[in-house]
Model the fold of this input.
Amino acid sequence: MEKIDLICIGCPLGCPVSVTMENGEVREVTGNTCKRGDAYARKEVTDPTRIVTSTVRVKGGRLAMVSVKTASDIPKGRIFDCVKALQAVELAAPVKIGQVVLPNVAGTGVAVVATKNVPAK
Done:
């Protein structure tokens, strides 16, 4: 049996969580104080994912950059592919909150969206 220790990020408490694995399967989760901790620990050891936040360039806007994020979590192993894809993106102003910046980023099926309005100059 293998024991994996984590700090839960499911809520602000940051509980120390231990996951016991056997033959690649979760056998037990301990240390969590809420249901989210159990769900987080199980997902983290079997299929870790993350929300990615970054910025992209804006042409002709009052700001030169706009903040963006993935619309949902993507596989942890695809983060660098996502960031690399965003380096090539330049939007034309105006940019609206929620505007799709890059659909299907890095082949994940997840869109990257703007998180701020940027009006034109």
